[in-house]
Amino acid sequence: LTQVNIVGDGSTDDGIFGTSVNGLTLTNVDISGNAGSGAATDRGVEINNLSGAATVTDSTITTMPGNLFHVINTTGTLNLIVTGSTFRGSADGADGFGGDGMLIEANGTSTIVARVTGNTFDQNESDHFQWATDGGASTGHLTLSGNTFTTTTPAGVLGGGVTISPAGASDLTFLIENNTVNGNRGGGSIDVTAVSTNSGMLVQGVVRNNTIGTAGVANSGSEQAGGISAELNGNGTMIVEILNNLVQQYNGAYGIEVVNRTGTGAGGTLHATVSGNTVLTPTIAAPNRAIHIGLGTSAGTDQGQVYLDLHDNHTNTGLARDIGITQVASVDLYMPGYVGDPDSIAAVVAFLTNLNPDGGTIGITDGLNETMNFLNGTVLHPASPLSPLIAVSRPWQPEQPITDDPVPVAPETVVPETGTGDTGTPPPTPDAPGHAVIVDDGVLTQAELDYLVEAAIQRWIEAGATAEQVAAMRATNVDIVDMAGIYLGTSSGNHISIDADAAGFGWFLDTTPGDNAEFTGTGTRLTGTGDAAGRMDLLTTIMHELGHQIGIDDTYSSGDAADLMYGYAGVGERRLPTSINIADADGTPTSGTAFALAPVNVGTLPAGTAVQINYRATVNPYGPGVIAPLSNTTTITGSNFSTVTVVHGLVVDTLTVGGQIFVDADGDNVFDVGEGVAGVTLNLYVDLDGSGALNGAELTTVIATTTTGAGGVYAFSSLGAGNYVVEVAASNFASGAALEGRASLNSVVDPDDNVDGDDNGVVAGGGAFRSGLITLDFNT
Question: 387-416+425-584: which CATH architecture?
Fold first, then answer.
């Protein structure tokens, strides 16, 4: 459906309802509901067993007494992409009914791969977003990135956050990053809670770079709950990383919480890495904690283990206990590097204090006099989230051959069959005239894929891959998946998936993958001929994804178009690995989401005809610091004109901080005309914890430097929202420098008082002078 407007008539019907639907596309679809007049089961979109590829783009679903978008699968495989859309107003103040902005249920034996990015969720009564499973054995892969979750009127709202609640024997891999949550009322802003009595459940994922709450707005993080929680209820395994999040203005018992509880038998196992987080301004006193680690909740019954890597968090909030560990059951705590007394609270406090120098007060409570057991142990990390390679839907016709030196290709070697012994793993050798493996009937088989995987590894070997890198490639499981839209392949920890039909373009299956006989040109980017000209090269896609497995990220610079790891893959194009790629590998599979776009094939245009292709650029929320220039690059090729490349700059809102450096000739602490000093060097710092006093990494990281101009005026621009400190560098007071022989008046005036011309400098030590805390935010 495209450009469709569906308006409820006050009945109890859904906007769109379906059962056993294969494939769905909603583009520019607006669905507005019954404004609370229907039943709680009214939904904007409700589909039972949606499979295949499904996309929701630039659509708006509002005002429903039930869930706005609801998928309930018990079987089949679904690849779902939701982007650029709005889900608003599932709340129903009239009759008490209400639902989620989006609810995805991966039940039974279903498999769901979902990417929910760049959307707006607003004023939904229950959860803005929820992922749930029943007691089955489903498989899920969730990416929740760059979304805005807002509740502006808490009255009548029960939740207003993100809930991930797998159960049973389900396996779930998730990435929750770069989201903003404001106005949560209950349940927590981001809550991951796994419930299972099945030891086979595996939940693993990353929560990172999210912003919860707004500085200076009481309870904007949560009115009745906390910021981020990861909780394992029962058995099974949870592996979670909580990294570099900002949690502020919360009115619950914790800013970040990790809990293992209600395990039976050997209990459940929870691995948690909690690092680089900043927790500020709780709005409730004791027993609040900035970070809380819970070892069970019921004495004598809870069993389990917590493996915890807790370090470099900024949680000095002034609470009686900023970081707290509570043991109420037989749940052991393992910490990497801990070699102290296994039952010494003091030793563990000292250990964690050293790891969190800006962590504030740390304490441990033995809730019901359970035996303490603090041990050394290794914390596991989650597999990397899926990293799709996406096809650009346009034919790729390089204007001229790339003159880079080609990667040498070893001739294929035929190894005679002896009937006994092991001949090793030589490069694949095709049979002539037929082929023993590749049939090329339009249907990609696992045998064909396996054959070309080995050929791709051989190409990496020829480029100089080390034995360790080759071993990592061979340890990777590679399978075939019918992916959504223009996805060609995805790479995660030790796993690669390849699209069944190359995003609709069809795969070129090379029967002689040890050479490039079907391609022309030189260097690392070649042009296909014959059958290779009109299809996506599977060998290139496999080599690209294997590059992710050894730790090479995508590149999107137009100057890297010939690079194997360039983020766009074109029809009829082969790209090859080089020793430069090998040097870029760090040995760890890449995480996050990477895209290579495979072809918009316009076809043949009559003379005088124009075609317009529009793209939407979604910029993830950014935190404090200097915002680098953003741009998109568009390349247009055709058969009768030279390639056209256009760089489009993206305009994003940024902030500026500035002022004047002046010599106070009359000593009145106020700037007067003629007192400004040019040529003064200033540094800018980010104050992560908002304390106004730089410490730790804050003090050693200068994010920008500038010099005063005429009249002593200076400015730092292109900044994100956050807390900053401006420094007059000590070098300005050296012999011959702009402020030689001068000293700063030690003022205590707040630089955020909106008064110009006053003195905001304080002595910082080491000969430098700094401002007080400067808070920048949009629309203030």
Answer: 3-Layer(aba) Sandwich (3.40)
